[in-house]
Amino acid sequence: MYRCSNNSIDRCDGKSFDTFNSNHKSEDETPTEKVVMESDQQDGKSDFRKTKMYRQLRPLLVCMRLFGLYFTRAKTLDGKLQTEKVVWWCAFVSVFMIVNVIRSMTTFYIGESYEHPFFQKAMFLIWSSECTLKVVVLFIFCYRQDGLPEYFTLWSKMCHGIGLDKFCKLLLIKAIVATWIFIIFNSVVFTLVLIYVPILDDIYLEVSWRHANLYRTKYQFKMLLGGLAIFNSSSSLFPIALYTILCFALGLQFQKLTKELSSAISNEGHLEGNLEDFRLRHEDLCSLVTTLNRVYMPIIAAAYAANIPMFCIVMYTLIYSIDIHISIVLINLFWLTFLLMHLLIISSVAAWLSSQAHSALEHIYRLRAHGQSIKDLQLQITIFLSRLTGTQIGLSACHLFVVDRPTILTIAGMMVTYFVLLLQFKLPVGSGVCCCNGTVPENNSVLLINAG
Protein backbone atom coordinates (compact mmCIF):
# COMPACT_ATOMS: atom_id res chain seq x y z
CA MET A 1 0.00 0.00 0.00
CA TYR A 2 1.27 3.43 -0.95
CA ARG A 3 1.23 6.30 1.52
CA CYS A 4 2.14 9.97 1.11
CA SER A 5 2.92 12.21 4.04
CA ASN A 6 1.94 15.84 4.12
CA ASN A 7 5.54 16.90 3.60
CA SER A 8 6.17 14.66 0.63
CA ILE A 9 2.83 14.68 -1.12
CA ASP A 10 4.28 16.56 -4.06
CA ARG A 11 6.68 13.70 -4.68
CA CYS A 12 3.89 11.14 -5.03
CA ASP A 13 3.39 10.46 -8.71
CA GLY A 14 0.24 9.22 -10.41
CA LYS A 15 1.74 5.78 -11.08
CA SER A 16 1.64 4.96 -7.40
CA PHE A 17 -2.06 5.72 -7.20
CA ASP A 18 -2.73 3.82 -10.44
CA THR A 19 -0.87 0.82 -9.06
CA PHE A 20 -2.88 1.00 -5.86
CA ASN A 21 -6.16 1.16 -7.76
CA SER A 22 -5.23 -1.77 -9.96
CA ASN A 23 -4.20 -3.85 -6.94
CA HIS A 24 -7.38 -2.91 -5.11
CA LYS A 25 -9.49 -3.87 -8.15
CA SER A 26 -7.74 -7.20 -8.53
CA GLU A 27 -8.72 -8.14 -4.98
CA ASP A 28 -12.40 -8.12 -5.98
CA GLU A 29 -11.87 -10.28 -9.08
CA THR A 30 -11.14 -13.96 -8.87
CA PRO A 31 -8.25 -15.34 -10.92
CA THR A 32 -10.67 -17.41 -13.01
CA GLU A 33 -12.77 -14.39 -13.95
CA LYS A 34 -9.64 -12.46 -14.83
CA VAL A 35 -8.38 -15.22 -17.12
CA VAL A 36 -11.76 -15.56 -18.80
CA MET A 37 -12.01 -11.81 -19.33
CA GLU A 38 -8.54 -11.60 -20.85
CA SER A 39 -9.24 -14.63 -23.04
CA ASP A 40 -12.47 -13.17 -24.35
CA GLN A 41 -11.01 -9.73 -25.01
CA GLN A 42 -7.73 -10.82 -26.58
CA ASP A 43 -8.19 -14.24 -28.14
CA GLY A 44 -11.88 -13.84 -28.94
CA LYS A 45 -11.10 -11.54 -31.84
CA SER A 46 -8.90 -14.12 -33.58
CA ASP A 47 -10.23 -17.46 -32.32
CA PHE A 48 -13.95 -17.63 -31.63
CA ARG A 49 -13.48 -20.99 -29.89
CA LYS A 50 -12.09 -19.16 -26.86
CA THR A 51 -15.12 -16.94 -26.38
CA LYS A 52 -17.25 -17.57 -23.34
CA MET A 53 -20.47 -18.18 -25.28
CA TYR A 54 -18.83 -20.82 -27.45
CA ARG A 55 -17.47 -22.64 -24.40
CA GLN A 56 -20.90 -22.67 -22.80
CA LEU A 57 -22.49 -24.04 -25.98
CA ARG A 58 -20.05 -26.95 -26.24
CA PRO A 59 -22.51 -29.62 -24.97
CA LEU A 60 -24.91 -28.78 -27.79
CA LEU A 61 -22.13 -28.41 -30.36
CA VAL A 62 -20.69 -31.82 -29.39
CA CYS A 63 -24.09 -33.41 -30.02
CA MET A 64 -24.22 -31.69 -33.39
CA ARG A 65 -20.74 -33.00 -34.23
CA LEU A 66 -21.89 -36.57 -33.58
CA PHE A 67 -24.42 -36.27 -36.40
CA GLY A 68 -22.18 -34.29 -38.76
CA LEU A 69 -23.88 -30.94 -38.20
CA TYR A 70 -21.03 -28.81 -36.90
CA PHE A 71 -17.28 -28.31 -37.16
CA THR A 72 -14.92 -25.42 -36.54
CA ARG A 73 -12.62 -23.57 -38.90
CA ALA A 74 -10.71 -20.89 -37.03
CA LYS A 75 -7.56 -18.85 -37.40
CA THR A 76 -4.40 -19.96 -35.63
CA LEU A 77 -1.74 -17.72 -34.13
CA ASP A 78 0.07 -17.48 -37.47
CA GLY A 79 -3.13 -16.27 -39.18
CA LYS A 80 -3.88 -19.48 -41.09
CA LEU A 81 -7.28 -21.15 -41.07
CA GLN A 82 -7.33 -24.53 -39.35
CA THR A 83 -10.24 -26.92 -39.96
CA GLU A 84 -11.19 -29.77 -37.66
CA LYS A 85 -10.86 -33.29 -39.04
CA VAL A 86 -14.51 -33.88 -38.23
CA VAL A 87 -15.22 -31.87 -41.37
CA TRP A 88 -14.85 -35.10 -43.35
CA TRP A 89 -17.59 -36.72 -41.29
CA CYS A 90 -19.77 -33.67 -41.84
CA ALA A 91 -19.10 -33.82 -45.58
CA PHE A 92 -20.02 -37.51 -45.65
CA VAL A 93 -23.29 -36.83 -43.82
CA SER A 94 -24.11 -34.03 -46.26
CA VAL A 95 -23.52 -36.30 -49.28
CA PHE A 96 -25.46 -39.11 -47.60
CA MET A 97 -28.45 -36.84 -47.02
CA ILE A 98 -28.39 -35.65 -50.63
CA VAL A 99 -28.30 -39.26 -51.88
CA ASN A 100 -31.21 -40.05 -49.57
CA VAL A 101 -33.30 -37.31 -51.20
CA ILE A 102 -32.49 -38.74 -54.64
CA ARG A 103 -33.45 -42.21 -53.40
CA SER A 104 -36.78 -40.84 -52.14
CA MET A 105 -37.51 -39.44 -55.59
CA THR A 106 -37.01 -42.85 -57.20
CA THR A 107 -39.83 -44.37 -55.13
CA PHE A 108 -42.41 -42.55 -57.26
CA TYR A 109 -43.50 -43.97 -60.60
CA ILE A 110 -45.76 -42.93 -63.46
CA GLY A 111 -49.39 -43.90 -63.08
CA GLU A 112 -49.20 -44.24 -59.30
CA SER A 113 -52.57 -43.93 -57.59
CA TYR A 114 -53.12 -41.19 -55.03
CA GLU A 115 -53.50 -43.47 -52.04
CA HIS A 116 -51.86 -43.72 -48.63
CA PRO A 117 -48.41 -44.94 -49.83
CA PHE A 118 -48.18 -41.98 -52.21
CA PHE A 119 -48.84 -39.44 -49.45
CA GLN A 120 -46.36 -41.12 -47.11
CA LYS A 121 -43.67 -41.04 -49.79
CA ALA A 122 -44.42 -37.40 -50.50
CA MET A 123 -44.20 -36.48 -46.83
CA PHE A 124 -40.93 -38.36 -46.35
CA LEU A 125 -39.46 -36.71 -49.45
CA ILE A 126 -40.41 -33.24 -48.22
CA TRP A 127 -39.04 -33.88 -44.74
CA SER A 128 -35.79 -35.38 -46.07
CA SER A 129 -35.32 -32.38 -48.36
CA GLU A 130 -35.79 -29.97 -45.45
CA CYS A 131 -33.32 -31.87 -43.26
CA THR A 132 -30.80 -32.09 -46.09
CA LEU A 133 -30.97 -28.35 -46.66
CA LYS A 134 -30.30 -27.74 -42.96
CA VAL A 135 -27.25 -29.99 -43.04
CA VAL A 136 -25.83 -28.35 -46.17
CA VAL A 137 -26.49 -24.81 -44.90
CA LEU A 138 -24.77 -25.50 -41.58
CA PHE A 139 -21.83 -27.07 -43.39
CA ILE A 140 -21.43 -23.98 -45.57
CA PHE A 141 -21.67 -21.47 -42.73
CA CYS A 142 -19.36 -23.47 -40.48
CA TYR A 143 -16.79 -23.40 -43.26
CA ARG A 144 -17.27 -19.73 -44.11
CA GLN A 145 -16.01 -17.13 -41.66
CA ASP A 146 -19.05 -14.86 -42.07
CA GLY A 147 -21.40 -17.42 -40.50
CA LEU A 148 -21.33 -18.86 -37.00
CA PRO A 149 -17.64 -17.95 -36.42
CA GLU A 150 -18.43 -14.30 -37.10
CA TYR A 151 -21.43 -14.42 -34.78
CA PHE A 152 -19.39 -15.73 -31.84
CA THR A 153 -16.63 -13.22 -32.51
CA LEU A 154 -19.01 -10.25 -32.76
CA TRP A 155 -20.84 -11.36 -29.65
CA SER A 156 -17.63 -11.43 -27.63
CA LYS A 157 -16.62 -8.01 -28.98
CA MET A 158 -19.92 -6.14 -28.76
CA CYS A 159 -21.25 -7.74 -25.59
CA HIS A 160 -17.91 -7.45 -23.78
CA GLY A 161 -17.24 -11.17 -23.55
CA ILE A 162 -20.31 -12.11 -21.54
CA GLY A 163 -21.81 -15.57 -21.84
CA LEU A 164 -25.24 -17.11 -21.47
CA ASP A 165 -27.37 -16.16 -18.49
CA LYS A 166 -29.12 -18.67 -16.21
CA PHE A 167 -32.26 -18.78 -18.32
CA CYS A 168 -30.36 -19.60 -21.51
CA LYS A 169 -28.27 -22.23 -19.71
CA LEU A 170 -31.43 -23.94 -18.46
CA LEU A 171 -32.95 -23.66 -21.92
CA LEU A 172 -29.80 -25.23 -23.37
CA ILE A 173 -30.15 -28.29 -21.14
CA LYS A 174 -33.86 -28.67 -21.94
CA ALA A 175 -33.22 -28.35 -25.68
CA ILE A 176 -30.56 -31.07 -25.65
CA VAL A 177 -32.73 -33.46 -23.61
CA ALA A 178 -35.84 -32.83 -25.72
CA THR A 179 -33.92 -33.39 -28.96
CA TRP A 180 -32.47 -36.70 -27.79
CA ILE A 181 -35.92 -37.86 -26.66
CA PHE A 182 -37.32 -37.07 -30.09
CA ILE A 183 -34.47 -38.86 -31.87
CA ILE A 184 -34.90 -42.01 -29.77
CA PHE A 185 -38.67 -42.04 -30.04
CA ASN A 186 -38.84 -41.30 -33.75
CA SER A 187 -36.21 -43.88 -34.70
CA VAL A 188 -36.46 -46.75 -32.21
CA VAL A 189 -40.19 -46.67 -31.53
CA PHE A 190 -41.08 -46.17 -35.19
CA THR A 191 -38.86 -49.11 -36.19
CA LEU A 192 -40.43 -51.35 -33.55
CA VAL A 193 -43.90 -50.40 -34.77
CA LEU A 194 -42.93 -51.38 -38.31
CA ILE A 195 -41.58 -54.72 -37.11
CA TYR A 196 -44.50 -55.73 -34.91
CA VAL A 197 -47.37 -54.23 -36.94
CA PRO A 198 -47.25 -55.99 -40.35
CA ILE A 199 -50.33 -54.16 -41.58
CA LEU A 200 -48.16 -51.05 -42.04
CA ASP A 201 -45.82 -52.75 -44.52
CA ASP A 202 -47.91 -51.86 -47.55
CA ILE A 203 -47.94 -48.18 -46.55
CA TYR A 204 -44.54 -47.37 -45.04
CA LEU A 205 -42.16 -49.81 -46.74
CA GLU A 206 -42.85 -48.13 -50.07
CA VAL A 207 -41.11 -45.10 -48.57
CA SER A 208 -37.79 -46.95 -48.36
CA TRP A 209 -37.77 -48.70 -51.74
CA ARG A 210 -40.06 -49.16 -54.71
CA HIS A 211 -42.23 -52.30 -54.25
CA ALA A 212 -40.36 -53.14 -51.04
CA ASN A 213 -43.42 -54.92 -49.66
CA LEU A 214 -43.10 -57.57 -52.40
CA TYR A 215 -39.69 -58.75 -51.18
CA ARG A 216 -39.50 -61.94 -49.12
CA THR A 217 -37.24 -60.35 -46.49
CA LYS A 218 -38.34 -56.92 -45.34
CA TYR A 219 -36.24 -56.27 -42.24
CA GLN A 220 -33.50 -54.50 -44.21
CA PHE A 221 -36.00 -51.90 -45.38
CA LYS A 222 -37.33 -51.40 -41.87
CA MET A 223 -33.82 -50.92 -40.50
CA LEU A 224 -33.12 -48.50 -43.34
CA LEU A 225 -36.11 -46.40 -42.32
CA GLY A 226 -34.93 -46.48 -38.70
CA GLY A 227 -31.43 -45.31 -39.65
CA LEU A 228 -32.77 -42.54 -41.87
CA ALA A 229 -35.07 -41.45 -39.05
CA ILE A 230 -32.02 -40.96 -36.79
CA PHE A 231 -30.22 -38.64 -39.21
CA ASN A 232 -33.37 -36.78 -40.21
CA SER A 233 -34.45 -36.28 -36.60
CA SER A 234 -31.06 -34.97 -35.49
CA SER A 235 -30.68 -32.64 -38.47
CA SER A 236 -34.23 -31.41 -37.96
CA LEU A 237 -34.02 -30.39 -34.29
CA PHE A 238 -30.39 -29.75 -33.32
CA PRO A 239 -30.08 -26.70 -35.64
CA ILE A 240 -33.34 -25.37 -34.20
CA ALA A 241 -32.04 -25.91 -30.67
CA LEU A 242 -28.97 -23.78 -31.46
CA TYR A 243 -31.21 -21.25 -33.18
CA THR A 244 -33.40 -20.95 -30.08
CA ILE A 245 -30.48 -20.42 -27.70
CA LEU A 246 -28.82 -17.77 -29.88
CA CYS A 247 -32.10 -15.90 -30.42
CA PHE A 248 -32.96 -15.85 -26.73
CA ALA A 249 -29.47 -14.70 -25.76
CA LEU A 250 -29.65 -11.88 -28.31
CA GLY A 251 -33.21 -10.94 -27.38
CA LEU A 252 -32.27 -10.65 -23.71
CA GLN A 253 -29.54 -8.18 -24.67
CA PHE A 254 -32.15 -6.05 -26.46
CA GLN A 255 -34.33 -6.34 -23.37
CA LYS A 256 -31.47 -5.24 -21.13
CA LEU A 257 -30.78 -2.23 -23.36
CA THR A 258 -34.44 -1.21 -23.29
CA LYS A 259 -34.57 -1.41 -19.49
CA GLU A 260 -31.46 0.75 -19.15
CA LEU A 261 -32.90 3.29 -21.59
CA SER A 262 -36.20 3.35 -19.72
CA SER A 263 -34.49 3.93 -16.38
CA ALA A 264 -32.37 6.72 -17.91
CA ILE A 265 -35.48 8.66 -18.98
CA SER A 266 -37.20 10.56 -16.19
CA ASN A 267 -40.93 11.05 -15.86
CA GLU A 268 -40.54 14.53 -17.37
CA GLY A 269 -38.87 13.06 -20.47
CA HIS A 270 -35.32 14.15 -19.61
CA LEU A 271 -32.53 11.76 -20.56
CA GLU A 272 -29.79 11.13 -18.01
CA GLY A 273 -26.92 10.12 -20.22
CA ASN A 274 -26.02 10.11 -23.88
CA LEU A 275 -28.63 8.86 -26.33
CA GLU A 276 -25.93 8.20 -28.90
CA ASP A 277 -24.42 5.51 -26.66
CA PHE A 278 -27.76 3.69 -26.51
CA ARG A 279 -28.21 4.01 -30.26
CA LEU A 280 -24.77 2.61 -31.03
CA ARG A 281 -25.33 -0.30 -28.64
CA HIS A 282 -28.61 -1.02 -30.38
CA GLU A 283 -26.90 -0.86 -33.76
CA ASP A 284 -24.28 -3.37 -32.58
CA LEU A 285 -27.03 -5.78 -31.55
CA CYS A 286 -28.70 -5.26 -34.92
CA SER A 287 -25.49 -6.33 -36.64
CA LEU A 288 -25.65 -9.56 -34.62
CA VAL A 289 -29.21 -10.06 -35.87
CA THR A 290 -27.97 -9.58 -39.43
CA THR A 291 -25.24 -12.18 -38.96
CA LEU A 292 -27.63 -14.67 -37.40
CA ASN A 293 -30.15 -14.04 -40.17
CA ARG A 294 -27.49 -14.76 -42.78
CA VAL A 295 -27.12 -18.26 -41.37
CA TYR A 296 -30.71 -19.13 -40.55
CA MET A 297 -32.81 -17.43 -43.22
CA PRO A 298 -32.59 -20.43 -45.64
CA ILE A 299 -33.42 -22.77 -42.75
CA ILE A 300 -36.46 -20.68 -41.79
CA ALA A 301 -37.62 -20.55 -45.40
CA ALA A 302 -37.20 -24.31 -45.75
CA ALA A 303 -39.14 -24.89 -42.54
CA TYR A 304 -42.14 -22.94 -43.82
CA ALA A 305 -41.90 -24.39 -47.32
CA ALA A 306 -41.76 -27.96 -45.98
CA ASN A 307 -43.78 -28.01 -42.76
CA ILE A 308 -46.92 -26.36 -44.14
CA PRO A 309 -47.35 -28.90 -47.00
CA MET A 310 -46.51 -31.70 -44.56
CA PHE A 311 -49.19 -30.39 -42.22
CA CYS A 312 -51.72 -30.56 -45.05
CA ILE A 313 -50.69 -34.13 -45.93
CA VAL A 314 -50.83 -35.30 -42.32
CA MET A 315 -54.25 -33.72 -41.80
CA TYR A 316 -55.54 -35.38 -44.97
CA THR A 317 -54.24 -38.84 -44.04
CA LEU A 318 -55.43 -38.44 -40.46
CA ILE A 319 -58.99 -37.68 -41.51
CA TYR A 320 -59.28 -40.12 -44.42
CA SER A 321 -57.43 -43.09 -42.86
CA ILE A 322 -58.84 -43.03 -39.36
CA ASP A 323 -60.61 -46.37 -39.87
CA ILE A 324 -57.58 -48.35 -41.16
CA HIS A 325 -55.54 -49.01 -38.00
CA ILE A 326 -55.00 -47.30 -34.66
CA SER A 327 -51.22 -47.22 -35.19
CA ILE A 328 -51.64 -45.05 -38.30
CA VAL A 329 -53.75 -42.62 -36.30
CA LEU A 330 -51.13 -42.45 -33.53
CA ILE A 331 -48.29 -41.92 -36.01
CA ASN A 332 -50.19 -39.14 -37.74
CA LEU A 333 -51.01 -37.50 -34.41
CA PHE A 334 -47.33 -37.66 -33.46
CA TRP A 335 -46.32 -36.01 -36.74
CA LEU A 336 -49.04 -33.42 -36.43
CA THR A 337 -47.81 -32.47 -32.96
CA PHE A 338 -44.20 -32.34 -34.14
CA LEU A 339 -44.97 -30.11 -37.12
CA LEU A 340 -47.02 -27.69 -35.06
CA MET A 341 -44.35 -27.48 -32.35
CA HIS A 342 -41.61 -27.05 -34.96
CA LEU A 343 -43.40 -24.17 -36.65
CA LEU A 344 -44.41 -22.66 -33.31
CA ILE A 345 -40.84 -22.64 -31.98
CA ILE A 346 -39.35 -21.15 -35.14
CA SER A 347 -42.05 -18.50 -35.49
CA SER A 348 -42.50 -17.53 -31.84
CA VAL A 349 -38.76 -17.24 -31.13
CA ALA A 350 -38.17 -15.08 -34.21
CA ALA A 351 -41.24 -12.95 -33.46
CA TRP A 352 -40.10 -12.44 -29.85
CA LEU A 353 -36.64 -11.39 -31.03
CA SER A 354 -38.18 -8.90 -33.47
CA SER A 355 -40.41 -7.41 -30.77
CA GLN A 356 -37.47 -7.02 -28.38
CA ALA A 357 -35.42 -5.33 -31.09
CA HIS A 358 -38.20 -2.72 -31.50
CA SER A 359 -39.04 -2.43 -27.80
CA ALA A 360 -37.01 0.76 -27.35
CA LEU A 361 -39.39 2.65 -29.62
CA GLU A 362 -42.00 3.46 -26.98
CA HIS A 363 -39.34 4.94 -24.71
CA ILE A 364 -37.86 7.11 -27.47
CA TYR A 365 -41.25 8.76 -27.90
CA ARG A 366 -41.08 9.90 -24.28
CA LEU A 367 -37.93 11.96 -24.81
CA ARG A 368 -38.12 15.74 -24.63
CA ALA A 369 -35.53 17.79 -26.51
CA HIS A 370 -34.06 20.40 -24.19
CA GLY A 371 -30.81 22.06 -23.21
CA GLN A 372 -28.00 23.57 -25.17
CA SER A 373 -27.45 20.52 -27.42
CA ILE A 374 -31.04 20.40 -28.59
CA LYS A 375 -30.05 20.06 -32.26
CA ASP A 376 -27.73 17.13 -31.56
CA LEU A 377 -30.39 15.40 -29.48
CA GLN A 378 -33.02 15.88 -32.17
CA LEU A 379 -30.65 14.40 -34.74
CA GLN A 380 -29.94 11.40 -32.52
CA ILE A 381 -33.65 10.86 -31.91
CA THR A 382 -34.38 11.07 -35.63
CA ILE A 383 -31.70 8.52 -36.51
CA PHE A 384 -32.83 6.18 -33.73
CA LEU A 385 -36.49 6.44 -34.74
CA SER A 386 -35.59 5.86 -38.38
CA ARG A 387 -33.84 2.64 -37.42
CA LEU A 388 -36.74 1.42 -35.27
CA THR A 389 -39.59 2.37 -37.59
CA GLY A 390 -38.10 2.51 -41.07
CA THR A 391 -36.72 -1.03 -41.15
CA GLN A 392 -37.86 -4.38 -39.81
CA ILE A 393 -35.32 -5.85 -37.41
CA GLY A 394 -35.49 -9.61 -37.11
CA LEU A 395 -35.00 -12.93 -38.83
CA SER A 396 -36.42 -13.45 -42.30
CA ALA A 397 -37.22 -16.26 -44.71
CA CYS A 398 -34.64 -15.57 -47.45
CA HIS A 399 -35.49 -11.83 -47.26
CA LEU A 400 -39.06 -12.53 -48.39
CA PHE A 401 -40.60 -11.45 -45.08
CA VAL A 402 -39.45 -10.84 -41.53
CA VAL A 403 -40.97 -13.27 -39.05
CA ASP A 404 -43.05 -11.29 -36.55
CA ARG A 405 -46.34 -11.66 -34.71
CA PRO A 406 -48.58 -11.04 -37.77
CA THR A 407 -46.71 -13.86 -39.52
CA ILE A 408 -47.82 -16.29 -36.82
CA LEU A 409 -51.45 -15.19 -37.20
CA THR A 410 -51.28 -15.58 -40.98
CA ILE A 411 -49.87 -19.11 -40.82
CA ALA A 412 -52.30 -20.16 -38.08
CA GLY A 413 -55.26 -18.80 -40.05
CA MET A 414 -54.17 -20.67 -43.17
CA MET A 415 -53.90 -23.96 -41.28
CA VAL A 416 -57.29 -23.54 -39.64
CA THR A 417 -58.84 -22.76 -43.03
CA TYR A 418 -57.39 -25.92 -44.56
CA PHE A 419 -58.65 -28.01 -41.62
CA VAL A 420 -62.17 -26.62 -42.00
CA LEU A 421 -62.15 -27.32 -45.75
CA LEU A 422 -61.11 -30.92 -45.14
CA LEU A 423 -63.98 -31.42 -42.71
CA GLN A 424 -66.49 -29.89 -45.11
CA PHE A 425 -65.46 -31.96 -48.14
CA LYS A 426 -65.11 -35.26 -46.28
CA LEU A 427 -67.84 -37.71 -47.28
CA PRO A 428 -69.87 -39.25 -44.43
CA VAL A 429 -68.72 -42.69 -43.32
CA GLY A 430 -70.61 -45.44 -45.16
CA SER A 431 -72.00 -43.22 -47.86
CA GLY A 432 -71.90 -44.73 -51.32
CA VAL A 433 -72.43 -43.48 -54.81
CA CYS A 434 -75.98 -42.27 -55.39
CA CYS A 435 -77.42 -43.68 -58.61
CA CYS A 436 -79.94 -41.18 -59.93
CA ASN A 437 -82.49 -41.35 -62.68
CA GLY A 438 -83.52 -37.92 -63.91
CA THR A 439 -86.57 -37.01 -65.97
CA VAL A 440 -86.89 -33.63 -67.63
CA PRO A 441 -90.42 -32.57 -68.72
CA GLU A 442 -90.96 -30.75 -71.99
CA ASN A 443 -91.45 -27.39 -70.35
CA ASN A 444 -88.03 -27.72 -68.65
CA SER A 445 -89.45 -26.17 -65.53
CA VAL A 446 -88.95 -28.97 -63.02
CA LEU A 447 -86.20 -31.58 -62.72
CA LEU A 448 -87.44 -34.78 -61.10
CA ILE A 449 -84.78 -36.90 -59.38
CA ASN A 450 -85.54 -40.49 -58.45
CA ALA A 451 -82.89 -42.16 -56.33
CA GLY A 452 -82.15 -45.63 -57.62
From TrEMBL:
The chain crosses the membrane at residues 86-110, 122-141, 175-200, 221-252, 295-318, 330-353, 406-423. Its main location: membrane. The keyword Transmembrane helix applies. It is found in: Membrane. Keywords: Membrane, Receptor, Transmembrane, Transmembrane helix. It is a multi-pass membrane protein. One of its GO terms (cellular component) is membrane. GO terms for biological process: detection of stimulus. Residues 22-44 are annotated as: Disordered. Residues 24-44 have a biased composition (Basic and acidic residues). InterPro entries: 7TM_chemorcpt. GO terms for molecular function: signaling receptor activity. It comes from the Eukaryota. It holds the Pfam family 7tm_7. PANTHER family: GUSTATORY RECEPTOR (PTHR21421), GUSTATORY RECEPTOR 5A FOR TREHALOSE-RELATED (PTHR21421:SF29). This is Gustatory receptor.
